[in-house]
Specification:
The complex is a heterodimer of chains A (311) and B (511). Chain A is mainly alpha-helical and 311 residues long. Chain A contains 13 helices and no strands.
Chain lengths: 311, 511
């Protein structure tokens, strides 16, 4: 990161946006899944898979855009497994999600050896090109824009799109109905299983994209453990944001701000031990999760498999 | 004959149950046709088949003379069939209009056209004379209004044939009357209606024809005009039914239970009980009559230890149990048949055996220290099942798999088995069929005759009048009168329930 000569506030805000990006993708993914009534605790694993295959795609083709497509497809594929287990086989959704998290960590570690013949991390690959200089030449906000990357814009655009889908389209109405009262939807001829499959797979695709934003941006490699809980923080942000796209966006920004502040503050020379700064994001997460922010309302049928013809 | 619906030879088997057996059913155009039967007789199954929720194992369905295959609700809707389910199929946090258009949304390019949805809702609501705000959210409107939304949902989809499953179960008497008018209007518009119910009064008041189903088979189809309540009850249950509660005059003894100047707040923090005084004597049934929401729920919750009293006393056997824990109150001799058997009467996912000892679970012989003695528990459950005629394959099935009547019998059995001095019976027969109602009434009278006190709270005035020896009327958190059941008339009680006063009421004399 090249922050020299930047006002600290600009650096902090830009850093916040960059750090928030993977969280936003994953939180949106979580939203699709949970709005349709399927708990997706496997976001962490889907981020990991996405991060790995983004690098692999870029490594193979030298084209980071192909890497992003790899990430989206791999995330969707692993989510399809979660969908099959929790919708079709009516497995416990939490267990299925946890299994995906463990599987993702293991498979990426294995594939590192098989595909890259390395341990711990991949080789560096072509990152996604961002016209930093051109952006910086924009008056007033140029310096700020120069510090961002394409993912930031895509993430914010997707928040708007997701909100639009949920609250302005017939599909959104159906998704929410399926998550609230699947039987009501079923009696109106809406395919509950179809909607849930669509949403869970979309959820994986979005998390996969989030993974790409992690590995194919500032760093241009995949490192084991690089996701480090971001999937869970995304779930916390989604709940904190009361299961709404813009709510989740703000929540992701708050978490990311805490994270960015930690990094920036360590350079300020205040008389606090560095552990204090490192603890800030977790303190905020705990405050949020302990319900300090008031009651949020999950979809009524969230986590409950739907059985056709059940009394 | 022009039948709009004809079901021929329908058979549907669930694991262990023949829910429908060679059922024939015909609906004429423009009639209100009641499907009458006890709970679990197979009425709802038959209609779920017509609506495509279940597939029949055998049989054919004709709609307007054409043989059709109904594989899903979409097929039913496409054939002009709409259904209002007993448990409403409404998304609680959606608006009225959103619920109505769901699955058949008006679109503007790719957008959901909410303005048109609201307009369309208004249009059909007006067309059938429903007063409803398309923009209100379902969880904020009354049950009666929610039912209207369900009817509108079917009409919006162009339903010509409307199935209503137990539509009156959740309605107040006034709302039932209103529903009757609505149905007559719908018929005038050329709709045909199938009404599933087990309430005989409504059959007589609302229908043109009745088909009676018992244990999955059609017993008969009759014209309503050519039958009467007694005949219908007999066909439904399969034997002569006594619709009047038979009881000897009470032989009350000493006062065993007292409530003194009881005050309590409701869940919003408003004063719901404003100084209630009540006395129940051993060997009598005291009925509390009143319109829903006048403090009955709060009163029962305070007595059973689920709600704090603001002031006043609850006394059983000269012992003050105000503010004590439910456990202590049970042990002091009060047992409770709760208003909502699903929420408070049973743990639905537990077996019958486990349910049979709730409240006694920590006592010998069911528990030995920290261990449960399942052999004894099952033996006890079998005894109750036998004695109270609970219809179940065995004591190991989950309570949720029983019909409402049998669930309630289990609750009543358990509460009586606690050998209490006072039995609280809150809406003890809500949602039950004639056979089960008759049984539970008999049982309560029998317990009275054994010398227990019974505090009956019911919204069904008929029930209060049939069972009680004395009737207390509750209005706005106060007991506004206590009448001897012999002297109480429906008219007098009605005046008191609405907050009026009786000329003849002697001051304090009846307390």
């Amino acid at each position: 990161m090249n922050n020299t000569g930047l006002p600290i506030i600009v650096a902090l805000l830009a850093s916040t946006l960059r750090l928030a990006t993977p969280l936003i993708f994953a939180a949106l993914g979580g939203l699709f899944s949970e709005k349709s009534g399927v708990v997706n605790i496997g976001l962490e694993g889907m981020l990991t898979i996405g991060a790995f295959f983004a690098v692999y795609g870029s490594f193979k083709t030298n084209n980071p855009w192909i890497g992003i497509i790899f990430a989206v497809i791999s995330g969707a594929a692993i989510a399809a497994v979660h969908a099959f287990l929790s919708i079709h086989l009516k497995a416990d959704q939490t267990i299925s999600g946890v299994a995906i998290n463990i599987f993702a960590a293991a498979i990426t570690s294995y594939l590192l050896m098989v595909l890259f013949n390395r341990q711990g991390q991949t080789d560096g690959v072509t990152p996604l090109y961002y016209p930093k200089e051109a952006m910086q030449s924009i008056p007033v906000i140029g310096k700020f824009l120069g510090e961002l990357n394409w993912y930031v814009f895509i993430a914010i655009a997707l928040v708007i799109v997701t909100n639009y889908i949920f609250y302005k389209t017939p599909l959104g109405l159906r998704i929410r109905a399926v998550g609230e009262h699947p039987k009501a939807a079923d009696t109106l001829g809406i395919g509950v299983y179809g909607i849930r499959y669509l949403c869970v797979i979309l959820s994986g695709a979005l998390a996969g994209l989030g993974g790409a934003s992690l590995s194919l941006s500032n760093t241009n490699l995949f490192r084991e453990g690089m996701v480090s809980g971001k999937g869970f923080i995304a779930i916390a942000a989604m709940i904190f944001g009361n299961y709404k796209p813009f709510g989740a966006l703000w929540a992701c920004l708050i978490f990311a701000l805490a994270d960015a502040f930690q990094i920036v503050a360590q350079g300020l020379g205040w008389p606090f031990p560095t552990e204090f700064y490192s603890a800030i994001p977790f303190i905020i997460t705990m405050i949020v999760l302990s319900g300090f922010v008031g009651k949020t309302v999950p979809p009524a049928a969230d986590g409950i498999p739907y059985e056709k013809g059940e009394k | 004959m022009d039948f709009v619906v004809e079901m021929k030879g329908i058979t549907k088997v669930f694991p262990g149950v023949r829910a429908n057996e060679n059922v024939n059913f015909q609906l004429k155009k423009g009639e209100i046709h009641v499907l009458l039967g006890e709970n679990g007789a197979g009425k709802t199954t038959l209609m779920n088949i017509l609506y495509g929720l279940y597939q029949p194992d055998e049989g054919e369905i004709f709609v307007k003379g054409k043989k059709i295959n109904i594989k899903s609700p979409s097929d039913a809707i496409a054939n002009g069939i709409g259904m209002v389910h007993q448990h409403f199929m409404l998304v609680q946090n959606f608006t009225v209009a959103e619920n109505i258009v769901l699955g058949k949304e008006p679109k503007k390019s790719i957008n959901l056209d909410m303005n048109k949805a609201v307009e369309d809702t208004k249009k059909i609501a007006d067309a059938y004379g429903f007063k409803i705000d398309p923009n209100s959210v379902i969880e904020d409107i009354t049950v009666g209004q929610q039912q209207k939304v369900e009817i509108l949902k079917a009409l919006y989809r162009g339903a010509e044939i409307l199935i209503l499953d137990e539509p009156t179960a959740v309605l107040t008497p006034q709302e039932i009357e209103e529903l009757g008018v609505i149905l007559k209007n719908l018929v005038k518009e050329g709709k045909s209606i199938i009404l599933i119910t087990h309430k005989l009064k409504e059959v007589m008041g609302m229908s043109d024809r009745v088909t009676i189903i018992r244990r999955g088979k059609v017993i008969n189809t009759v014209n309503t005009k050519e039958t009467n309540i007694e005949q219908l009850a007999e066909m439904m249950v399969g034997r002569k039914v006594n619709l009047v509660v038979e009881k000897k005059p009470a032989n009350p003894k000493e006062v065993i239970f007292k409530v003194e100047k009881l005050e309590a707040l409701d869940h919003r923090g408003l004063l719901a009980l404003k100084g209630i005084d009540l006395q129940v004597r051993a060997g009598e049934i005291l009925g509390i009559a009143g319109v829903d929401g006048n403090g009955q729920t709060e009163l029962l919750e305070v007595i059973t230890g689920l709600r704090k009293a603001k002031s006043g006393k609850v006394i059983i056997n000269n012992k003050d149990v105000t503010g004590k824990s439910p456990k202590e109150i049970i042990e002091s001799g009060i047992s409770n048949i709760p208003e909502d058997r699903h929420k408070r009467g049973l743990v639905l996912k537990y077996s019958l055996a486990e349910n049979s000892i709730l409240g006694m679970h920590s006592k010998k012989p069911f528990a030995n220290g920290i261990m449960m003695n399942y052999a004894k528990i099952k033996e006890f459950a079998r005894k109750l099942i036998d004695e109270f005629d609970v219809r179940t394959p065995n004591e190991d099935v989950a309570a949720s798999s029983l019909s409402g009547g049998n669930q309630q019998k289990m609750v009543v059995a358990r509460e009586i088995a606690k050998d209490p001095d006072l039995i609280i019976a809150a809406q003890p027969t809500r949602g039950l069929d004639v056979g089960a109602i008759e049984y539970i009434h008999k049982r309560l009278v029998a317990e009275r005759d054994k010398g227990r006190g019974v505090l009956l709270v019911s919204l069904e005035l008929d029930e209060v009048m049939a069972l009680s020896d004395r009737i207390a009327v509750i209005y706005d958190g106060e007991i506004v009168g206590v009448l001897d059941a012999k002297d109480a008339t429906e008219n007098d009680l009605g005046i008191l329930m609405a907050g009026g006063t009786l000329e003849s009421q002697s001051k304090g004399g009846v307390q």
